[in-house]
Amino acid sequence: MLLRMSTLFLRTLREDPADAEVPSHRLLLRAGYVRRAASGGYTWLPLGKLVLDRVAQVVRDEMAAIGGQEIHFPALLPREPYESSGRWTEYGDDIFTLKDRRGAEHLLAPTHEEMAALLVRDLFSSYRDFPVILYQVQTKFRDEARPRAGLLRGREFLMKDAYSFDLNQAGLQAAYDQHRMAYQRIFDRLGLDYTIVAASSGSMGGSASEEFLAATPVGEDTFVGCTACHYAANTEAVTTPAPASGDVHAFAPAQAYDTPDTPTIESLVQLANARRLGGRDDWTAADTLKNVVLSVRRVGVAEPELLVIGIPGDREVDLKRVGVALYPNTATLFDGFADRPDLVRGYIGPQVLAKLGIRYLVDPRVVPGTAWLTGANEPGRHAVNVVSGRDFIADGTIEAAEVRAGDPCPACRSGKLTIRRGIEIGHIFQLGRRFIDAFAIDVLGPAGKPVRPIMGSYGIGVSRAVAAIAEQHHDEQGLAWPAAVAPVDVHVVAAGRGPQVEAALGLGRELADAGLRVLVDDRSQVSAGVKFADAELIGIPRTVVVGRRLADGYAELRDRASGERTELPVAEIVAQLTGLRRLAE
């Protein structure tokens, strides 16, 4: 393949686009790989489409290696299968829905578990048909409230979604392990620095799931690692080690005090120590119990209900963790205190919630026998020695508090958690039988009796992976693609307007004949400086500069990632580059 810059459908930009937020967004736009078409939607230009296709081919290679068979579902799907699974309602505003001319409702698919289950039900009837892995590489849609960061958070994106079907849990585990290893090979080949973390299953359900997160400071996901063991998890899935329960009768009776002008935990702690409330002057924020009121909307229920969450006062509520814990219901901070005089804003304590009929969930650290400084349910007053299990009984626990660096590891208990940010590039699920049960799928088992299959689901964001690679492989000058995904292997730059152009084209043809993919900058009305800047911006792994030393029979070979430059005889360039490609393979 030989591409010429003089005819390539490409325009590079010297300045960052005003709406580009993160490096991948800026550089993919500036280098002419994508173009914004609409909010959350991008057109793939020729160089970008080459990268996208190469990423997809790596995915296809590794899926084929584990026996995956490629299919292709429609993106426009009827309502009924998603109604049967419950996800038509669960997805809420996150999906695009529409009606056809006959009034039938449809959606633009965000994922295809329902259709995969129905396909297997239609075609398979015996245990002899299993196991099977089906996958597709297809455009998906989500009605993102705030599309942002270019390809990282769009409304339309390319995804590989795979579905495994087995007859028992052992088969599902084997398929899950196969995909886990295949994903590692895929992301290794793509040149990504990634971490596998425990994750929540969200709308998928199932017994287990893991995410593959590409580490980057601009990632939307936060994940933890342990300083002493191999534990890693998305912060949404981190569990809090609970202390041992204590004696609920070991404390003096609860006592309320006047605590005027204490709108914050910090001001409350200062006053409590200054006045020695409860006979103490060593109060800290961690000794206080913060009670946060939420408005929860349950799926299919019109009116919201109140929920109060109790967490140690040195923590903030993480609404993303709350959303995971309450899914598919949604929660927002309650702001209707004017209509609820029985809830004294800033002074709410758990002592009266049961009488008010308000559900109360607490942080796992709030165990029976722990005593707290908390609201007294009166304006300007707090109470000490409010004991869990004596003065209030929670309706359950919830992982709602923020996770912080230095927290104890929930796996080994001896290590401390570190926190990083990352981009979700893959997610694998042991779904179990949620979708199988939704459609009552049974096959004839080996004993002649019906057997219900079990299912796994495995996703890779193909277009998002392009952005993740760009995030991890760039510098101040531009992109620096790994060889496995670069749109071409070699960028030949004619640094001159005389014989250099024809020599560059001739060298490009030789390289293409040798099996390399080549881009030749043969533009005659562009200066060498602009060509060099474009070469660094576009980010091809190796650049050959045909310039001043052409008369001596030499050209310069540049390595984009390392910046290394070497002068070689033009006659040796083809052999050198084909040899480097063989080494990379």
The number of distinct β-strands equals: 30
Number of helices: 14
The parts where pLDDT drops under 50 for at least 5 residues are none
Q: Supply the helix-strand structural class.
A: alpha+beta
Major sheet details: 9 strands, mixed
Note the beta-strand portion: 25-35%
Average pLDDT confidence is: 94
Rg? 30 Å
Shape: globular
Distance between the termini: 18 Å
Residues in helix, %: 25-40%
Concise summary:
The chain is built from 14 helices and 30 strands.
Provide key terms for this protein:
585 residues, alpha+beta, nine-stranded mixed sheet, six-stranded mixed sheet, 30 strands, 29% strand
Walkthrough of the structure:
- With 585 residues, this protein is an alpha+beta fold.
- 26% of the residues lie in helices and 29% in strands.
- Helix 1 (23-30) packs across helix 11, helix 2 (46-65) packs antiparallel against helix 6 and helix 2 (46-65) crosses helix 11 (462-472).
- The two termini are 18 Å apart.
- The mean pLDDT is 94.
Set down the secondary structure blueprint:
Layout: E1 2-4, H1 23-30, E2 34-38, E3 41-44, H2 46-65, E4 69-70, E5 76-78, H3 79-85, H4 87-91, E6 96-99, E7 105-108, H5 113-123, E8 132-141, E9 156-166, H6 169-189, E10 194-198, E11 208-215, E12 221-226, E13 232-234, E14 255-258, H7 265-274, E15 289-297, E16 305-312, H8 319-326, E17 330-333, H9 353-356, E18 359-362, E19 371-378, E20 381-387, E21 396-397, E22 417-432, H10 434-438, E23 443-444, E24 450-451, E25 454-461, H11 462-472, E26 490-494, H12 499-513, E27 518-521, H13 528-538, E28 542-546, E29 554-559, E30 565-569, H14 570-584
Parallel strand pairs: 1-27, 4-8, 16-18, 18-21, 26-27, 26-28
Antiparallel strand pairs: 2-3, 5-7, 6-7, 8-9, 9-25, 10-11, 11-22, 12-13, 12-22, 14-20, 15-16, 15-17, 19-20, 22-25, 23-24, 28-29, 29-30
Helix pairs in contact: 1-11, 2-6, 2-11
